[in-house]
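pasting for the record
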Amino acid sequence: MSETTARATGRNWGRFALHYIEMIIAMFAGMFLLDLAWSMAGVHVSYATHPEAAYLLMALNMSIGMAVWMRFRGHGWGSTLEMCAAMFAPAVPLFPLLWLGLIDGHGVMIAAHVAMFPAMLAVMLRRLDEFAGCAR
């Protein structure tokens, strides 16, 4: 896309890519920092014994990290909550496979992590003008 076209549409693809990277960093920061906080508080949920709870807690931790960063960047609640939903949505088709014994807790975690990245990208493409122009 030419610079003239980018100015006409208000879309900045470099900013879009940077925001995607920021979301990944915020997601992992939330996951690691909040997991540490939970551990310090004596809360530990195992993928081996309670895979659903472990996944949901991890998704919550990642969502909090991303939500904090998105709100700091000036994004509204709608796009923030959609991005958080991208952390939980991959589990929907995986939990029944877990319950049927076709996948284990670690398999859920790995498959969900792989699915999160395109889910996050889908949210950003759905709100392309917001993420390519950035709210701030």
